[in-house]
């Protein structure tokens, strides 16, 4: 082996690792967040929290559960506002 091919291989591996890290931490959360109406930070946070507590199943279900929680919270909030508005004279 000569050093040149080894350096080329290391450069390729480094580029691959950087692209994978960007895809996992920036690109995917943005795409999922836009589709589901969630902020990318919420997507990343939900993945971290649910995978920590529930392992691989939590990792798979983190984003759908976060979207479900958003819908439930918004529905409860709108019902609270409606009931508050109906009590006004």
How would you describe this structure to a colleague?
With 89 residues, this protein is mainly α. It has one domain (3-86). It is built from 2 helices and no strands. It has helices spanning 3-36, 40-86. Helix 1 packs parallel to helix 2 (40-86). It is elongated and about 85 Å long.
**Total beta strand runs:** 0
Class from helix and strand fractions = mainly alpha
Distance between the termini: 86 Å
Order of helices and strands: HH
As for the number of domains, it is 1
Computed CA radius of gyration, to the nearest angstrom = 21 Å
Share in β-strands: under 5%
Give the biggest beta sheet.
none
Helix content: over 70%
Q: Kindly state the mean pLDDT as a whole number?
A: 89
Task: Name the features.
mainly alpha; 89 residues; elongated; single chain
Brief summary:
With 89 residues, the protein is mostly helical. The chain has helices at 3-36, 40-86. It is built from two helices and no strands.
Give the helix/strand layout.
Blueprint: H1 3-36, H2 40-86
